[in-house]
Amino acid sequence: QVQLVESGGGLVQPGGSLILSCAASGSFFSIVVMGWYRQAPGQQRELVATITSSSSPVYADSVKGRFTVSRDNAKNTVVLQMGSLKPEDTAVYYCNADVTRWGGRQIFWGQGTQVTVSS
Protein backbone atom coordinates (compact mmCIF):
# COMPACT_ATOMS: atom_id res chain seq x y z
CA GLN A 1 0.00 0.00 0.00
CA VAL A 2 0.89 3.66 -0.27
CA GLN A 3 0.35 6.19 2.49
CA LEU A 4 0.13 9.95 1.99
CA VAL A 5 0.49 12.11 5.09
CA GLU A 6 -0.44 15.79 4.83
CA SER A 7 0.45 18.63 7.14
CA GLY A 8 0.20 22.40 7.29
CA GLY A 9 -3.47 23.28 7.15
CA GLY A 10 -5.13 25.78 9.44
CA LEU A 11 -6.85 29.13 9.79
CA VAL A 12 -5.45 32.16 8.00
CA GLN A 13 -6.70 35.66 7.29
CA PRO A 14 -7.50 36.80 3.75
CA GLY A 15 -4.32 37.82 2.00
CA GLY A 16 -2.24 35.50 4.14
CA SER A 17 -0.09 32.50 3.31
CA LEU A 18 0.07 28.83 4.18
CA ILE A 19 2.29 25.94 3.21
CA LEU A 20 0.95 22.41 2.81
CA SER A 21 3.26 19.40 2.75
CA CYS A 22 2.65 15.79 1.82
CA ALA A 23 4.95 12.80 2.20
CA ALA A 24 4.42 9.47 0.46
CA SER A 25 5.58 6.17 1.83
CA GLY A 26 4.94 2.49 1.20
CA SER A 27 5.43 0.11 -1.70
CA PHE A 28 5.80 1.68 -5.13
CA PHE A 29 8.36 1.99 -7.91
CA SER A 30 7.88 5.67 -8.69
CA ILE A 31 5.50 8.59 -8.36
CA VAL A 32 4.47 9.77 -11.80
CA VAL A 33 2.38 12.74 -10.73
CA MET A 34 1.89 14.22 -7.27
CA GLY A 35 -0.28 17.11 -6.27
CA TRP A 36 -3.22 18.67 -4.51
CA TYR A 37 -6.97 18.72 -4.90
CA ARG A 38 -9.54 20.47 -2.75
CA GLN A 39 -13.17 20.09 -1.83
CA ALA A 40 -15.33 22.82 -0.36
CA PRO A 41 -18.64 22.06 1.38
CA GLY A 42 -21.28 21.15 -1.16
CA GLN A 43 -18.78 21.22 -4.01
CA GLN A 44 -17.03 18.56 -6.05
CA ARG A 45 -13.38 17.82 -5.49
CA GLU A 46 -11.28 19.90 -7.87
CA LEU A 47 -7.69 20.05 -8.99
CA VAL A 48 -5.53 22.71 -7.38
CA ALA A 49 -2.05 21.91 -8.65
CA THR A 50 -0.07 18.88 -9.75
CA ILE A 51 3.52 18.30 -10.70
CA THR A 52 5.23 15.53 -12.64
CA SER A 53 8.45 13.76 -11.74
CA SER A 54 10.22 16.09 -14.19
CA SER A 55 8.79 19.08 -12.28
CA SER A 56 6.24 20.19 -14.83
CA PRO A 57 3.40 21.87 -12.91
CA VAL A 58 -0.27 22.25 -13.75
CA TYR A 59 -2.41 24.80 -11.93
CA ALA A 60 -6.10 25.52 -11.72
CA ASP A 61 -6.86 28.92 -13.23
CA SER A 62 -8.21 30.08 -9.88
CA VAL A 63 -4.82 29.69 -8.17
CA LYS A 64 -2.36 30.67 -10.91
CA GLY A 65 0.00 33.34 -9.74
CA ARG A 66 -0.89 32.75 -6.09
CA PHE A 67 0.06 29.12 -5.44
CA THR A 68 3.29 27.27 -6.19
CA VAL A 69 3.70 23.49 -6.20
CA SER A 70 7.04 21.75 -5.87
CA ARG A 71 8.29 18.25 -5.17
CA ASP A 72 11.34 16.44 -3.91
CA ASN A 73 11.65 13.15 -5.80
CA ALA A 74 14.30 11.81 -3.44
CA LYS A 75 12.05 12.33 -0.41
CA ASN A 76 8.75 11.58 -2.16
CA THR A 77 7.27 14.83 -0.95
CA VAL A 78 5.17 17.56 -2.51
CA VAL A 79 4.70 21.08 -1.16
CA LEU A 80 2.01 23.62 -1.96
CA GLN A 81 2.88 27.20 -1.16
CA MET A 82 -0.31 29.24 -1.00
CA GLY A 83 -0.27 33.02 -1.03
CA SER A 84 -2.78 35.86 -1.34
CA LEU A 85 -5.36 33.52 0.11
CA LYS A 86 -9.03 34.28 -0.40
CA PRO A 87 -12.11 33.08 1.46
CA GLU A 88 -13.03 31.02 -1.57
CA ASP A 89 -9.85 28.99 -1.05
CA THR A 90 -11.45 27.53 2.06
CA ALA A 91 -11.70 23.77 1.62
CA VAL A 92 -10.29 20.43 2.64
CA TYR A 93 -7.09 19.94 0.68
CA TYR A 94 -6.15 16.42 -0.37
CA CYS A 95 -2.76 15.16 -1.42
CA ASN A 96 -2.82 12.90 -4.47
CA ALA A 97 -0.24 10.57 -5.95
CA ASP A 98 -0.26 8.63 -9.21
CA VAL A 99 2.24 5.84 -8.64
CA THR A 100 3.61 2.82 -10.46
CA ARG A 101 3.42 -0.46 -8.56
CA TRP A 102 3.57 -4.14 -9.45
CA GLY A 103 -0.02 -4.08 -10.72
CA GLY A 104 0.52 -0.98 -12.83
CA ARG A 105 -0.42 2.61 -12.10
CA GLN A 106 -2.63 3.45 -9.14
CA ILE A 107 -4.02 6.60 -7.55
CA PHE A 108 -3.79 7.24 -3.83
CA TRP A 109 -5.23 9.99 -1.64
CA GLY A 110 -4.31 11.49 1.68
CA GLN A 111 -6.80 12.00 4.49
CA GLY A 112 -7.12 15.71 3.82
CA THR A 113 -6.21 18.84 5.72
CA GLN A 114 -8.54 21.74 6.40
CA VAL A 115 -7.66 25.22 5.13
CA THR A 116 -9.90 28.04 6.33
CA VAL A 117 -9.47 31.59 5.07
CA SER A 118 -11.42 33.98 7.23
CA SER A 119 -11.07 37.22 9.15
Kindly describe this structure.
The chain has 119 residues and is mainly β. It has strands at residues 2-7, 10-12, 18-26, 30-39, 46-52, 57-59, 67-72, 77-82, 91-101, 104-109, 113-117. The protein contains no helices and eleven strands. The radius of gyration is 14 Å and the shape is elongated. Strands 2, 4, 5, 6, 9, 10 and 11 form a seven-stranded mixed β-sheet that branches. A four-stranded antiparallel β-sheet has the order 1-3-8-7, with no helix packed on it.
Give the topology, please:
Blueprint: E1 2-7, E2 10-12, E3 18-26, E4 30-39, E5 46-52, E6 57-59, E7 67-72, E8 77-82, E9 91-101, E10 104-109, E11 113-117
Parallel strand pairs: 2-11
Antiparallel strand pairs: 1-3, 3-8, 4-5, 4-9, 5-6, 7-8, 9-10, 9-11
Q: How many alpha or pi helices? A: 0
User: What's the SSE pattern?
Assistant: EEEEEEEEEEE
User: What does the radius of gyration come to?
Assistant: 14 Å
In this structure, how is the largest beta sheet organized? 7 strands, mixed
**What is the helical fraction, as a range of percent?**
under 10%
N- to C-terminal distance: 40 Å
Strand content: over 45%
Structural class: mainly beta
Number of strands: 11
**Average pLDDT, to the nearest integer?**
96
**Dominant shape:** elongated
Low-confidence stretches: none
Structure characteristics:
single chain; 119 residues; mainly beta; seven-stranded mixed sheet; four-stranded antiparallel sheet; 11 strands; 0% helix; elongated
Quickly describe the structure.
With 119 residues, the chain is mostly beta strands.
